[in-house]
Amino acid sequence: MRKNIVAGNWKMNKTFPEAQELMFQLLEYKKHNTVNCEIAVAPPTLYLLMARNVFDAEDIKVMAQDMSAHSSGAYTGEISAEMLLSVHADGSIIGHSERRLYHGETDENCALKIKAALDNGLTPIYCNGENLDQRKAGQHLEVVKLQTETALFGLTADEIKKVVIAYEPVWAIGTGETATPEQAQEIHKFIRSFIAGKYGDEVADEISILYGGSVKPDNAKEIFAQPDVDGGLIGGAALDIADFSKIIEAFN
Ligand code: PEP
Q1: Does the predicted model carry a pTM greater than 0.85?
Q2: Domains along the chain?
Q3: Is 202 a catalytic residue?
């Protein structure tokens, strides 16, 4: 049975003491509240070990924001799956639209990263989604189909079951624009049935598909209530404990 997940992507925000404070706030929150979803946090790489140490007690998952497809070697600035494992990280976001836009990430590259993550027992959160021009041209289903196929369809059924997908329309990320619950459901259902077409319903039903793009406390409940939306990947609102905890409570 697939899991409901609320994952926070902190991006390039927070100094060390600020990150530490937010981690302790989240830890305290989880300790004292009933939570009906899995919580994951993707802090900057520099703070992964701290996150692991702080969050272990409350089983909050710790994710990187990106990882290399290579296992080791002369790749300045990169981190490998093995390194993530060595600090007991649980997984990594892969293919975030900001990585695609600013760092030339492609679906082919994502496929290699996803495989490297799975080979090392890490959970990949694979991001896909169309940009504004593609949405306006009515190409959103085609775009997401190609992204899904290219990055994921080289995997076996057992492997793809372990992937978390985050549908993130680029036009909704950090813009305050959100897909309507119906728009989110349309794409999530489409992704799930596309996967079912290749791997079968049982496999497709196991995969958590998160929505990302300006999820806030006031729209989370409605979006998460859609039958094929299994939670959210949260950017801006993950940086404030009051907002992030209210989004978590959308599952209560
Ligand atoms: C994101 O970057 O994954 C994201 C969804 O950002 P925001 O919530 O700020 O739109």
Answers
A1: yes
A2: 5-251 (3.20.20.70)
A3: no
